[in-house]
Amino acid sequence: MKILLLGAGGFIGVNLTERLLEDEQHDVVAVDIDEEKIAHLLHAECPRLDYRHLNIADDDAGISALVAQADVVVDLVAFANPALYVDDPVGVFDLNFIQNMKVVDQCRTFGKRLVQFSTCEVYGMTPAKVAGEFGLRSETHVTPFSEDFSPLIMGPVKNHRWIYACAKQLLERVLDAYWKRDGFRFSVIRPFNFIGPRIDFLPSEAGGGNPRVFAHFMDALLYGNKPIELVDGGEAFRAYTHIDDAVDCIVRVIEDTNNNCDGQIFNIGQPENELRIRELAVRMCDLFDEHFRREGDPPRPEMVTVSGEQFYGEGYEDCDRRVADITKARTLLGWEPRYGIDEALVKTMDYFVSRHRARQQQGGNQPPPEAAGMRSRATRSPVNKGGADDARVRQVGEASAEQPVLLRNQLENLRRREIELEQDNEALRSRCERLEQELRPSREELDQLKRERNAVEDAYHRARAQLQRLQEEGR
User: Fold this and answer.
1) Residues 399-417: pLDDT tens digits?
2) Between β-strands 274-276 and 237-239, what pairing exists: parallel, antiparallel or unpaired?
3) Contact yes or no for 28/20 (Cβ under 8 A)
4) DSSP letters along 186-202, please?
């Protein structure tokens, strides 16, 4: 099978590409605009991997040609970071719906099956949270999300945090409409909090930025230059799925050996790995102490509480709980997740710790500590309920610390944008070099053709001159 994998350079895409190549059953055409995470595969020069540096937003002809040649198209292209949802909601909608719809249209044009990645965020908030005024609580009223029956409940329009989920939900609805009207073949995957190697980046290594929660916690453990920040106290629940489990299920959807995946939406998650975010922080600290800590490492990081608006910006609202009903994946695909929460965390932490140790051995400088006094005005609060006894939690003062935190977030956003622009510039430079290399043979061939044409013209003129002399002699 020839698989076109759009967004192959991201966290899920790289791990999926590795698995597909290991199986040695498929040819993979991998497309992205960022080669950092997939570079190790490109250097390996695998004959089953064909990498293309293309952007679905402006390389319509190139993408269309690849779609036409594929047996199945897997679309992973997305902005999937809560910080971006409130920082650039228009850009999030444009990529996650407008640009992805172009891929849908190309698949329809060429009659290709599409495996479209969505998100568990399409479920929005739990019914219990919405009905909180009637005494219901998501802590006690657990409602696993079902692909075909659960309502999709979003927050107010002013809370831009939901624009990502709305864009993905709208894309799903359009796909289902084409399926029912035209028989368009598609499958949708809703990931539930995947973790594993190459998830996000560490802000201390990237010069700033605002990745997802796991990377923030890992950064605090390895570099010790900031506390672990618990958004709204870390009360929200999440159930984490190791990427190896997730990829195993994704491959089953792609291969569809039982021919029962068309028109289906699949939750991929591990409901048994659920815990609160503050419990995740304590668990990661404990596991780091048990498996990775060595002399010279920073002390166990302090934990602080910040509001969602302070951490992400105005317009943020959190999903209170996400429990996946994976009955469909079990029934149609025969899939079962294998990794428990501790094993999933340790395997993911090991990736970051190993990279960090390698940097230390190479003499890499430790990132500068957070500016002194950034949180000097923060006040203490009691230990969180249910947390470890040694987990120190302090409440950032609403009035006194709000402005420094907001300024810090703005600075991090600017640093992140600077990094993105540097990466774009480097990608464009690399692309120009590749195009130059691709054009060089054509230019050499053109020069050769010009020389041959000149030789032919010279021979023609000599023959014509000789003919004229013969005609004159004949007279």
Assistant:
1) 333 344 445 555 655 665 5
2) antiparallel
3) yes
4) EEEEEE--EE-TT-S--
| Structure tokens belonging to residue 301 | 């990081």
Between strands 379-380 and 303-306, the pairing is unpaired
Token pair listed for 389: 């006894």
Residues contacting residue 275 through CB under 8 Å, at least 6 positions apart: 237, 238, 239, 283, 341
Q: 194 to each of 57, 128, 147, 243, 248, how far by Cα in Å?
A: 26, 24, 18, 6, 12
| Closest to 227 measured CA to CA, from 241, 216, 235 | 216
Residues acting as catalytic residues:
164
Using one digit for the tens of pLDDT, what is the confidence trace for 71-95? Answer: 999 999 999 888 889 899 999 999 9
At 171, list the tokens. 């894309």
User: What are the angstrom distances between the C-alpha of 461 and each of 120, 457, 466?
Assistant: 75, 6, 9
| Count helices and strands in the chain by DSSP H and E runs | 16, 15
Would you give the DSSP letter of residue 124? B
List for the chain the helix, strand, coil content (%; round to 5): 50, 15, 35
Hey, what amino acid is at 418? E
Q: Who wins on pLDDT, 353 or 129?
A: 353
| DSSP characters over 221-235 | HHH-SSPEEEEGGG-
How is residue 285 written in tokens? Answer: 């600290």
How large a percentage of the chain has pLDDT more than 90? 62
* Selection from 65, 23, 30 nearest residue 49 by Cα: 30
Is 0.85 topped by the overall pTM? no
- Structure tokens belonging to residue 30: 């991998």
C-alpha neighbours within 13 Å on the C-beta side of residue 365: 5
Single-letter code of the amino acid located at 211: P
Q: Taking each helix axis as running N to C, give the angle between helix 243-255 and helix 11-23, from 0 to 180 degrees, rounded to the nearest 10.
A: 60
Q: Which amino acid is at 339?
A: Y
User: Mean pLDDT across the stretch 271-284?
Assistant: 96
Q: Which one is predicted more confidently, 251 or 464?
A: 251
pLDDT at 137: 64
Q: How far apart are CA 230 and CA 293, in angstroms?
A: 22
Task: Sort residue 363 into left (φ over 0), alpha (ψ -120 to 50) or beta.
Answer: left
**CA-based nearest residue to 262, from 389, 116, 382:** 116
- Which among 271, 254, 247, 230 has a CA at the least distance from the CA of 196? 247
